[in-house]
């Protein structure tokens, strides 16, 4: 109404202004159709409430693609699926911008929230949210929070229903609001919004809830100043003022959360989830990132992220969920309940996240709720350049409105579209139609990243309510009765009151809910107090030590020679030499390698200090010839300096390769490769013991797995003889030789002048070969992509489609969307890094593990016995079984303790002066963490030199920093889980299928060779015989 009021006053003045405006638009002849307009205001007068309905009426008259002129902004309106498909994905990048509406500047923290214009800033925010909040792993980690909050609310409902004998009605809309606010705040800040005593919604709590709804709910009023810039001064007192007030409230709310977290680094705010990972409130993650990247994670950006998460959380959907409850309860809830009971079984437990995928009926309720639900017109986009849509010319700067409401109700797409009809999802009606028929979460690049979270919260809350209660709707006579079949005519504000009666069959569960929680809470408080006392004591101790320490100290160092420093002392293997020095000079000492200062640390406390307190300072890698020539000028993830490039590469690899669901997706490749080697050994073996050279087999498995992930190729194995494979193997061999040679030129730059040992010229030659090969791979993939239908499948998210894609395919399709980030150079650098870092590390671990087991047959028997008991003989080992094979896991851990593939980690370098264990360490110091000393320290390990996998039987692996085979801190190996899976599967399969023995009576030689990944000096040989109980499976391979 504000809008019409102002317009009435001003229209006559503006007509005069308009007459004198020189640059009135010259209409392009191919513009989309448009209704007749009024001077100045254009089509503003046509936007009657509800806007989506008005737009649908216009589209009936002017077609699914039409143009409106709203003051100074041209607005393209799309209202049909075909029109939208015409526009997306063809013009997706062009329409990936959001219009910079002046009124939004403050609400959007100067356009720095995720609603920011399309570009680097937006991409970084998007990656952050995708990784930290919405990735499969993060969702899995936050699932406990959702379950806990739902139980909290259910418990309250139970309690109330048992009280006083009088049935109490519950306003479901408020129920969903309370639940959703609690879940979101718990995820964001680690605490609830509404505590138990507030759940009955007295007047004060109602006020608090309304206030939150207003503050974080969607803001729907249009600010005229956005469309009539010269009227901004007037509208400043209307809609913009309301926005300003809302902004102040939001900002104060978020600031209070931030203050609380900054001042209170409460260890209990984190919780450990199964698998040992820490689920931290999002604020803490952001504050941590603020410390490391203050220039990107500014306070405004942090507030913007929190605001978006809170504002876009589920309360948007609460009204619709409530309406669904009313509409469907009699028709559908019985079936949904049966489905849940059938799936969950004996009523002994409540629904959880893992059940949801198996409940199609429940899903259809949620999907239909969303179809008829809250999304009307999608948030506006703006074209960044001229383009065409449906054959019409669309000029740059045109605002785009997609009328999702019209699409969702299009009778041509949805039979009986105005009915709440679950069958349409059960019969996969939408799948038959395909394309972008349902737009509840938007589409294209700007699609809602929180779809997975949203669906889970809705399904879990509704599902648990259905599972636990019988429902009875209480009709409120003061309102017009609801007409159940016609959704469009329902009143939005009609409350839906339900009496929830606990189901008898689940009473047991309710009781356990009620009894267990307080006990858990008591334990929490106990641990909380203990932790606070512990950390406080540590803090005091630290203060005390700092006060008494002499801060101006350099670490101890052996006497050196002029010019070369300690270079003359360096014998290979380097970690053993450094170990000997540490025996004399302690766990923190320094060396001088030619021009470079080196710090060597080997105690848990020193390592911890380097990778926690000084983690950012040591997150750099030193410059080296190998980094320059063999790593695309420091562009690979392992050699890149700490900064934007490294962060982008790291995010990309984490998301595309190493996060849980991707890992699972590629398990087929790992199994196939491992089984191929098993088959090969089996074919060579007879009943007699066969002598097998295992080292090369482990190499074959590790390389082929990586190659298939990256490029869909297999280059290793005795059956592979083609020229391309040979070329690749030669390149890798040469790479290993060159990187392994300790490169004096890195320490004595003068030697570069004489091309000492021709290292540099050999590297340059090899670099050309590497690049040529990488180019070939890219070219081949590009050609294949353009020929095949892969491009079309890019939109498909099915596991099958994803499985077929290689990492190169994924990167090439990302290149189409973000060419400036996914340059050819970056793609080649990712491929190279994966091949170097992801192959020998795993193969050398398998090699050492097998050698250790051969020397300790009793430990080998223990592993096999466990495998026989837990896996049995009716199938070959699969990845999902690895978790339960504790003895096998312990063998891998013990191998990584004794023979870590990177015994000095990769070298780090300090970016500024710092202190380590009280010693001054200048900027530019190279850091080696010597795992050989650390992980064999007799003060830390019982019988430190002995191979004793059983030492981990109690699961005390991650105690302190005494075992870090994958590194620590920011540059920790991103593929630890991946590596362990490859090693576990490779080793496990060989142990399951064959009997293994040493070739002679003597122990296997355990000498190391000086090379990149600490490999064995001699290739490993062993005698093997197929195991009889598995013979049929082996024959079937
Ligand atoms: C048993 C197997 C593995 C072990 C023991 C291992 C160990 C390590 C270690 C110690 C580092 C250096 C950490 C530091 O400098 O602080 C590292 C870095 C790295 N690893 Fe692994 N790794 C393994 C498997 C893999 C696999 C399979 C891949 C890839 C597919 C991989 C990719 C990387 C990358 C890209 C880096 C560099 C990270 C950076 O600089 O940011 N690793 N790994």
UniProtKB/TrEMBL annotation:
PROSITE patterns: CYTOCHROME_P450 (PS00086). Coiled coil: none annotated. The keyword Lipid metabolism does not apply. The chain crosses the membrane at residues 6-21. Pfam families: p450. Keywords: Heme, Iron, Membrane, Metal-binding, Monooxygenase, Oxidoreductase, Transmembrane, Transmembrane helix. InterPro entries: Cyt_P450 (IPR001128), Cyt_P450_CS (IPR017972), Cyt_P450_E_grp-I (IPR002401), Cyt_P450_sf (IPR036396), Plant_Cytochrome_P450_Monoox (IPR050651). Signal peptide: none annotated. Belongs to the cytochrome P450 family. This is Cytochrome P450. It comes from Xanthoceras sorbifolium.
């Amino acid at each position: 109404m504000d809008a019409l009021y102002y317009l009435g006053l001003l229209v006559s003045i503006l007509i005069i202004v308009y007459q004198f405006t020189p640059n009135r638009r010259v209409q392009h002849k191919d513009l989309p159709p448009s209704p007749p307009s009024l001077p100045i205001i254009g089509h503003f007068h046509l936007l009657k409430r509800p806007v989506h309905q008005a737009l649908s009426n216009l589209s009936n008259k002017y077609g699914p693609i039409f143009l409106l002129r709203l003051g100074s902004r041209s607005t393209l309106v799309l209202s049909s699926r075909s029109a939208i498909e015409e526009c997306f994905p063809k013009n997706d990048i062009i329409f990936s911008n959001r219009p910079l509406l002046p009124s939004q500047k403050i609400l959007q923290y100067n356009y720095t929230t995720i609603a920011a214009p399309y570009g680097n800033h937006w991409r970084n925010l998007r990656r952050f949210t995708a990784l930290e909040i919405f990735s499969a792993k993060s969702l899995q980690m936050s699932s406990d929070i959702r379950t806990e909050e739902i139980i909290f609310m259910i418990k309250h409902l139970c309690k109330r229903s048992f009280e006083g004998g009088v049935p109490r009605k519950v306003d479901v809309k408020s129920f969903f609001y309370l639940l959703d606010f609690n879940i979101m705040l718990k995820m964001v800040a680690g605490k609830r919004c509404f505590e138990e005593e507030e759940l009955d919604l007295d007047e004060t709590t109602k006020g608090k809830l309304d206030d939150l709804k207003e503050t974080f709910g969607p803001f729907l009023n249009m600010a005229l100043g956005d469309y009539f810039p010269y009227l901004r001064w007037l509208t400043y007192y209307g809609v913009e003022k309301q926005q300003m007030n809302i902004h102040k409230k939001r900002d104060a709310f978020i600031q209070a959360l931030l203050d609380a977290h900054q001042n209170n680094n409460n260890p209990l705010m984190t919780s450990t989830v199964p698998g040992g990972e820490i689920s931290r409130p999002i604020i803490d993650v952001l504050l941590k990132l603020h410390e490391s990247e203050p220039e990107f994670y500014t306070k405004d950006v942090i507030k913007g992220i929190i605001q978006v998460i809170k504002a876009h959380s589920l309360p948007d959907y609460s009204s619709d969920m409530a309406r669904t409850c009313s509409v469907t309860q009699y028709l559908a809830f019985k079936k949904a309940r049966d489905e849940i009971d059938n799936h969950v079984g004996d009523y002994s437990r409540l629904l959880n996240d893992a059940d949801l995928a198996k409940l199609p009926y429940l899903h259809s309720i949620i999907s239909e709720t969303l179809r008829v639900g809250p999304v009307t017109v999608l948030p506006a986009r703006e074209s960044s350049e001229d383009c065409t849509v449906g054959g019409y010319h669309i000029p740059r700067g045109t605002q785009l409105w997609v009328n999702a409401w019209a699409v969702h109700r299009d009778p041509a797409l949805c039979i009986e579209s105005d009915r709440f009809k679950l069958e349409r999802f059960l019969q996969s009606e939408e799948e038959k139609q395909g394309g972008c028929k349902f737009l509840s979460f938007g589409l294209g690049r700007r699609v809602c990243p929180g779809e997975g979270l949203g669906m889970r919260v809705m399904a879990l809350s509704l599902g648990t309510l259905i599972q636990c209660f019988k429902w009875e709707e209480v009709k409120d006579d003061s309102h017009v009765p609801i007409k159940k079949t016609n959704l469009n005519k329902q009143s939005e504000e009609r409350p839906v009151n339900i009496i929830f009666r606990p189901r008898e069959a689940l009473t047991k569960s309710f009781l356990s809910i009620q009894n267990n929680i307080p006990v858990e809470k008591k334990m929490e408080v106990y641990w909380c107090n203990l932790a606070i006392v512990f950390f406080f004591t540590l803090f005091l101790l630290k203060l005390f030590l700092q006060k008494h320490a002499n801060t101006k100290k350099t670490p101890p160092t052996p006497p050196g020679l002029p010019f070369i420093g300690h270079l003359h002392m360096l014998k290979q293997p380097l970690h053993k030499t450094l170990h000997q020095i540490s025996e004399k000079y302690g766990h923190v000492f320094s060396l001088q390698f030619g021009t470079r200062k080196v710090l060597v640390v080997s105690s848990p406390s020193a390592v911890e200090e380097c990778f926690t307190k000084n983690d950012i300072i040591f997150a750099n890698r030193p410059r080296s010839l190998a980094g320059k020539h063999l790593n695309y000028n420091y562009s690979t993830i392992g050699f890149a300096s700490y900064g934007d490039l490294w962060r982008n590469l790291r995010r990309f690899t984490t998301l595309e390769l190493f996060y849980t669901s991707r890992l699972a997706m590629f398990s087929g490749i790992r199994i196939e490769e491992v089984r191929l080697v098993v088959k090969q050994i089996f074919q060579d073996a007879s009943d007699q013991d066969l002598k097998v050279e295992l080292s090369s087999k482990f190499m074959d498995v590790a390389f082929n797995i990586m190659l298939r992930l990256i490029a869909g190729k297999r280059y290793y194995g005795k059956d592979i003889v083609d020229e391309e494979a040979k070329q690749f193997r030669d390149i890798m061999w040469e790479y290993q030789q060159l990187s392994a040679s300790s490169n004096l030129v890195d320490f004595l730059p003068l030697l570069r002048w004489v091309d000492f040992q021709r290292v540099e010229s050999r590297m340059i030659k090899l670099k050309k070969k590497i690049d040529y090969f990488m180019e070939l791979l890219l070219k081949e993939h590009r050609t294949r992509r353009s020929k095949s239908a892969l491009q079309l499948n890019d939109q498909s998210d099915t596991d099958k489609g994803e499985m077929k894609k290689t990492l190169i395919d994924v990167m090439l399709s990302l290149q189409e969307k973000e060419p400036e980030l996914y340059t050819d150079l970056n793609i080649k650098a990712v491929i190279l890094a994966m091949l170097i870092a992801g192959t020998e590390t795993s193969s050398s671990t398998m090699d050492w593990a097998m050698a250790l087991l051969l020397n300790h047959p009793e430990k080998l028997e223990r592993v096999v016995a466990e495998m026989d008991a837990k896996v049995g003989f009716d199938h070959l080992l699969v990845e999902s079984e690895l978790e339960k094979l504790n003895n096998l896991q312990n063998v891998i851990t013990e191998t990584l303790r004794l023979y870590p593939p990177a015994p000095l980690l990769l070298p780090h370098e300090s970016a500024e002066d710092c202190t380590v264990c009280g010693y001054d360490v200048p900027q530019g110091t190279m850091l080696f963490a010597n795992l050989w000393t650390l992980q064999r320290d007799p003060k830390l390990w019982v019988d430190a030199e002995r191979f004793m996998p059983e030492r981990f039987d109690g699961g005390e692996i991650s105690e302190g920093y005494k075992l870090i085979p994958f590194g620590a801190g920011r540059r920790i190996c991103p593929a630890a889980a991946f590596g362990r899976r490859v090693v576990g599967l490779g080793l496990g399969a060989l142990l399951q299928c064959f009997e293994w023995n040493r070739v002679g009576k003597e122990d296997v030689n355990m000498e190391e060779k000086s090379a990149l990944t600490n490999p064995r000096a001699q290739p490993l040989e062993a005698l093997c015989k197929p195991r009889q109980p598995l013979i049929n499976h082996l024959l079937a391979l």
